[in-house]
Amino acid sequence: MTPAVPGAALDIELPGPWQHRYISANGARFHVCTSSPDPRAGDAAAPLVILLHGFPEFWWAWRHQLPVLATAGYRAVAMDLRGYGGSDKTPRGYDPGTLAADVAGVIRGLGSRAAVVVGHGWGGYVAWTVAAQHPDCVSALCASAAPHPRALTGTWGSRLTAPKAVRHLLAMQVPWLPERRIAKGRYVAQHLAAWSAPQSSFPSAAEAERYRAAFALWPSPHCALEYHRWLFRSRLRADGRAFARSMRRKIAVPVLHIGGAEDPAEPAGGMASSARYVVGPFTEELVAGAGHFPHEEKPDAFNRVLLDWLSQHAPSGADGSP
Which of 10, 27, 32, 208 is the most buried (most CB within 10 A)? Predict the structure, then answer.
C-alpha cells in the first residue's frame, strides 16, 4: 500500500471553506474534504452528502458544490477515490465492488448510517454500485454523466453510440504507454477540453494545471487507468459476470441523473436506459451548454438542480434516516 504523500499536501490539501481529514476504511486510507453548515454544531449535525469525482480529477472537482451545500444545511464531503489525490494508491482494488466498499466504509467512518451519494463519471459508476451492493448506506443517489453500469455497457456494446468514450476506453488498455502520456504531456488539459462543451470556458489554464499537478502524483495515472482496464477486461471473466449480476438489483431510493446537454461521452439513450434499474423516484435533468463536466462547466445551473432535488428527497436526520 502506498500511503498519501505528505510532501504532496500543497497539491491536494487546497485551502478554502472546508477542512481536510483522512479516514481508514476497507483496508486503505482515504482523503476527504468536508464542509459543514455550522462548525459549532459538529460534523454529525446535518444530513451527509458525499461527493465522488470522475476521471482525471480529484476532490477539488466539487469546489463549487461544497460551500453551496453547506450553506443549504448539508454536511458535504468530497472524497478522493482509491488511487487518486491524497487517498492510498494500492496495487489492487480498482474493481467496482472494492470501490463501492471503500465508499460505504467512508460513510460509516464519517459517523453516518447512510448518505446521499453524488457521483460524476467514474464516481457515478461507483455511486450506482454502492446503491446496488450496499443499499443500507445510500439514502438517495445523484449520478452525473454516468448511466447505470448495465445501461452503460449495453449502449456501448450494442450500438457504439458514444464513439469518443469507446475510443478513450480502448486506448487505455495498452500497457504503460497511456501512463507515460498522462504523466509527461498535456493529456489532462486536452482531455478536459475535448469532453467539455465547445463553447465552455472550462478548463481554464489554472484549472487544467491544478488537475495535471494532482494527477502527476505517481502512481495516480496507473491507478486511474486500472478502473478502465477492469471494465474492459472483466466482461468475459467470472468477476465481471458476478458484478453484472449484482447490478440487476433495483435501486429503491430516489435517483437523480444530471447530464450535460452537449456531453460527447454520454451514450445515446444511456440516461433513459438507467431508469429501468430504478424503482424509486427517478428524475432526469439536462444542463444546457454543458458537456461531460456540468458541475464545473455550469456550476450555478448544476447546483440549482441538485439543491432542488435534495430539498425533496434528502433525509432530514443526520444519521441518514428520513
Answer: 32
- Dist. CA 84–CA 31, nearest whole Å: 9
pTM for the whole thing? 0.92
Cell of residue 151, nine digits: 445501461
What are the tens digits of pLDDT across the range 136-186? 999 999 999 999 999 887 654 444 455 667 777 777 777 777 888 887 779
* Total number of residues shown for the chain: 322
Tens-digit pLDDT profile for residues 198-239: 999 999 999 999 999 998 888 999 999 999 999 888 887 899
Rg (CA), the chain: 18
What one-letter code names the amino acid at 34?
T
The full 3-state SS of 272-319, as one line of letters, equals HHHHHHECCCEEEEEECCCCCCHHHHCHHHHHHHHHHHHHHHCCCCCC
